[in-house]
Amino acid sequence: MSEQQPVSRRRAWLMAARPQTLPAGAAPVVVGTGLAVGTDVFAPLPALAALIGALLLQVGTNFANDYYDAIRGADTPDREGFTRVTAGGLIEPARVKRAMYATFGLAILLGTYLVWVGGPAILVIGLSSVAAGIAYTGGPAPYGYRGLGDLFVFIFFGLVAVTGTYYVQAVAGVAGIPPLPAPLAFVPPAAVVAALPAAGLSTCILVVNNVRDRETDAAAGKRTLAVLLGYTGSRIEFLLLLGMAYVVPLVFAATGYGVAVLLPLVTLPLAASLARTVLTETSGAALNPALETAGRLLFAHSVLFAAGLAVV
């Protein structure tokens, strides 16, 4: 859609929510649930609540980024990414901000059920996830502007999302509310290792985004890791994260899991195509489609990996 064409209010809100990112939000929950099925701790209601909560956190973070990047001047007319509704004047900033808080509020409300299931550990995870989603581009010292965005995505949209999903299912059948140290007892090392592909591929999406925006981010004073590392360093980071996503299934296969755990390897051609683009391109014309490809890769890899973990 051309920026000159009129945009309906409904379309503008869809643009702000960025529904194309929802598979990326769902992917780690799928992996955690697949492992829960394979270890006989699957609990459907906690799994569903974790999925909806993850999607709300994704949308809330999208609203936050749209709003805070605009008021900080990071979304300039030279930016080559998808249209941002706040900077583009499609929705009033105050309304985007209210939508952000409303979405995070719904996530917290849903989280009360998960806290009832999982105890104080889930309260800590949920509130820290909301705070991290806001502080990424908001607050007095947004860490996304200081080269820490990649670490945030790796931790919260990978490690925390997968292990948290597994944890609330593992404790669902336990009598009483588990104490705060409970995750140490209910989350096996396999859950942490299984989270690494989703963590790595989620971060790859951010790397593609930040490579595309490197020049405009630098001009706006937004010091993403791509700005700090440069194109070469960012591409090395991308390849390491991408490679990790394919090493982990091999590790599981070598440690007693069935051959089905190697299902994610069928996505290697898609990964190779994405890598060629990231290694050779910097323009929005090339990297905007690559962003969508990275999202599809994350979701496909996660679904296949979850299936392999579930049939063990």
What do you see in this structure?
It is a single chain. The protein is mainly α and 312 residues long. It has helices at 9-17, 22-38, 44-71, 93-118, 120-135, 149-170, 182-186, 189-212, 214-220, 225-254, 268-280, 284-310. The chain has one domain (9-310). It has twelve helices and no strands. The longest helix has 30 residues, at 225-254. 48% of the residues are buried.
List the secondary-structure elements in sequence, H or E: HHHHHHHHHHHH
Structural class computed from helices and strand pairing:
mainly alpha
Task: Give helix % range.
Answer: over 70%
Distance between the termini: 46 Å
How many separate domains? 1
| Main sheet characteristics | none
According to DSSP, the number of beta strands is 0
Q: What general outline do the C-alpha atoms trace? A: globular
Average pLDDT score: 89
Present the secondary structure layout.
Layout: H1 9-17, H2 22-38, H3 44-71, H4 93-118, H5 120-135, H6 149-170, H7 182-186, H8 189-212, H9 214-220, H10 225-254, H11 268-280, H12 284-310
List keywords for this structure.
single chain; 312 residues; mainly alpha; 72% helix; 0% strand
